Amino acid sequence: MAECNFVEIAKNAKLASKKLATLSTDIKNKALLAIAEALDLNQSLIFEANKKDLELAKDTLSASVFNRLKLDANKMRDMIQGVIDIYNLEDPIGKFLMQRSLDTGLILSKVSCPIGVLGIIFEARPDVISQITALAIKSSNAIILKGGKEAVNTNKAIFKIINDALASIKIFPPHSITQVFSREDVQEMLKCDAYIDLIIPRGGNDLVKYIKENTNIPVLGHADGVCHIFVDEFADLEKAKRIIIDAKTQYPSACNSVETLLIHERFMYKEELQKVLLSSGIELIYNVENWHVEYSDTKLSVKFVSSLEEAVEHINNYSSGHTESIITDSRENAAVFLKTVDSAGVYHNASTRFADGFRYGFGAEVGISTNKIHARGPVGLQGLTIYKYTLQGNGDIVNDYIEGVKHFNHKDLI
User: How many CB atoms lie within 10 A of CB 346?
Assistant: First the structure.
């Protein structure tokens, strides 16, 4: 796509974002219901398009990527339900986060508002379109979508169904949801900081690193998912077996699947635990040379540590900052772990697979952020908002306070 054409798309999205910011909750909810109904009525068209993509990709993609590309009845049900879940969530826009009287009749407010235009770059996950579209609509953001070429037919089908549904809502602004397709479009998107406010990549390590290194636009996301589980010396064996098997085998290619298992040397059931993991189909890798590895498979790096402190140090050195868990019946050790591990998600006696916007009750997510500013962890509606300060006065001027004519009272109202 030529540069001028992409810039025109971005300009239109920016204009649409201004109109989206004024939409009522009722209009946004009507749009979401229209999308959910349209997806339900057109399932056969989406499956047909997906079959074309699967046929073209069957000899070119890894098993994990092929599984992400494939839509089935369960994924379709989740897509539709995800839109309905967001419909049921409270509108995050226009909320008073703070309200303070600076002086009589001079009121300062901190109010939630949309970010503006989001550039979404994702790989073989066509179900991402409905998730992110629903989140963008409820949070009053415009989006420009760029999906992977392996899902082009499915992406086009879902996009058309969504935009046809939005067109039935008369007040809903056109150009709110846009889709582009080529690598050239990605290059232009990364340059388009005049119109795009945030880029959210959803894909492999190489994709995310490339985007972060080639744009001045803020990027929200994570490059990889190297998650850890630490089996403390005071761990319960049954809990350890259940949690680790779930975290590794329930969906091995997920970014919240565990990749490294740390076992305390004094855990008395360590031999039995390893035998159970092997019998469940997990390949245990010892003598690891590189501890920052995302297998996306049933492989699991294993290391024995002599203390809780050594486990925490290892995690903070080698983790991607995604999600870590400790298995222990010691509340004291759990508290230390939760406080000192520096990741977006830190768990006690729970599988790392819980790191998900749907499971957190966010309705859906645009991705997982390992950033330390703005949003962290699964990013749902709240992560797609920012805030502004508004000040209501009545001819007030700073000079009155400089000269002592008036005085601040700084009284919180909410």
Answer: 18
Residue 254 CB: number of other CB atoms within 10 A? 17
Report residue 264 as tokens.
């305390």
Q: Quick: pLDDT tens for 383-395.
A: 999 999 999 999 9
Whether pLDDT at 221 is above 80: no
Q: Sheet of 198-202: strands edge to edge? A: 177-180, 142-146, 117-122, 198-202
pLDDT for the residue numbered 368: 85
Question: What is the phi-psi region of residue 180: left when phi exceeds 0, alpha when psi lies from -120 to 50, beta otherwise?
Answer: beta
Which amino acid, residue 398? V
320, with CB counted inside 10 A (0-12, 13-18, 19+), is buried
CA distance 289 to 188: 39
pTM: 0.84
Q: What is the CA radius of gyration of the chain?
A: 24
Predicted confidence (pLDDT) at residue 402 exceeds the cutoff of 60: yes
Residue 343, sorted as left (phi over 0), alpha (psi -120 to 50) or beta, turns out to be beta
Q: What is the pLDDT of residue 344?
A: 94
Which residues 6+ apart lie within 8 Å of 393 measured at CB? 105, 106, 107
